[in-house]
Amino acid sequence: MKIAIIGYGKMGKMIEETAVEKGYTTGLIIDVDNLEDLTIQNLMGHDVAIEFTAPDAAYKNILTCFDANIPVVSGTTGWLEKFDQVKERCLKENQALVYASNFSIGVNIMFALNHHLARIMNNYPGYNPRLEEIHHTRKLDAPSGTAITLATILLEEIPRFEKWKLTDQPDGKTIPVKAVRADNIPGIHEVIYESDFDTLSIRHSAKSRKGFAIGALLAAEFIKEKKGLFSMNDILGLT
Predict the structure, then answer these.
(1) Does domain 105-205 have CATH number 1.20.1250.20?
(2) 139 catalytic, yes or no?
(3) How many helices (DSSP H) and strands (DSSP E) are in the chain?
(4) Which of 46, 139, 189, 204 is an active site residue?
(5) How far apart are CA 208 and CA 186, in angstroms?
(6) Which helix or strand (DSSP H or E) is residue 42 part of?
(7) Residue 239 CB: number of other CB atoms within 10 A?
(8) Which of these is catalytic: 60, 92, 135, 136?
């Protein structure tokens, strides 16, 4: 498999390192100093592109891959106001995209557990949910896309709450989400249920970026000869 890497920060470098370990080749590598090299011509001949960039760049990057008819794996968060446009073009033009707010296998299992636990906790209104996430100081969006996904699941399963909010002050209709930025932390996410008598939580703590890289490459293997819009649920059989 020949991979184009779009975004060559710490995540992009880990994807390249892990791809080499798996026997794959990396052709095109796009970083901030060679953005002009992201062209249809340069993308041609690759089996898949893996895109981890910035919120203001992801939309254009994905569409450029569509222009070249190259399947895309995207893990950039913070741009989802344009997701419906990407989805429409993907399906209309028979393109291929895997999007996930988090490619960690463990985090996606946590998403499934979050659904199940929230359904149970909906029957116990004495427990109020909140979320906490901690990331490295270079992460641009807050809360993280993963935290937003977790909060959205809670809203789906516990209808007495109307919204989530970036705050550490709970109220009766809002799920509070606390975001912390600290050095050298790949990512910690915790869903917490608090009652007057006890605390129940599910937590995922990343040890390194390699888990995300493995998941992104698993997505690349899955999508390289497919068409359509997919999530990690499809790849891991969690649907």
Answers:
(1) no
(2) yes
(3) 8, 11
(4) 139
(5) 6
(6) helix 40-43
(7) 9
(8) 135
Lookup result for tokens 């790849």: 235
Superfamily of domain 2-103+210-236: NAD(P)-binding Rossmann-like Domain (3.40.50.720)
Within 99-193, where are the H helices? 105-121, 145-157
Residue-level pLDDT, tens digit, the chain, 239 residues: 999 999 999 899 999 999 999 999 999 999 999 999 999 999 999 999 999 999 999 999 999 999 999 999 999 988 999 999 999 999 999 999 999 988 999 999 999 999 999 999 999 999 999 999 998 777 767 788 889 999 999 999 999 999 999 988 878 899 999 999 888 787 899 999 999 999 999 999 988 889 999 999 999 999 999 999 999 999 999 87
User: Tokens representing 34?
Assistant: 């060679």
Spans of all domains in the chain: 2-103+210-236, 105-205
**Phi and psi at residue 129, to the nearest 5°:** -85, 150
- Phi (first) and psi of residue 141, to 5 degrees: -100, 145
**Active-site residue, 189 included:** no
CA 235 and chain centroid, separation: 14
Amino acid at 43: L
Dihedral sign from CA coordinates of 33, 21, 48, 227: negative
Q: Give the C-alpha separation, 210 to 15, whole Å.
A: 8
Residue 179 pairs with which residues in a beta bridge? 133
Q: With a threshold of 0.85, does the pTM exceed it?
A: no
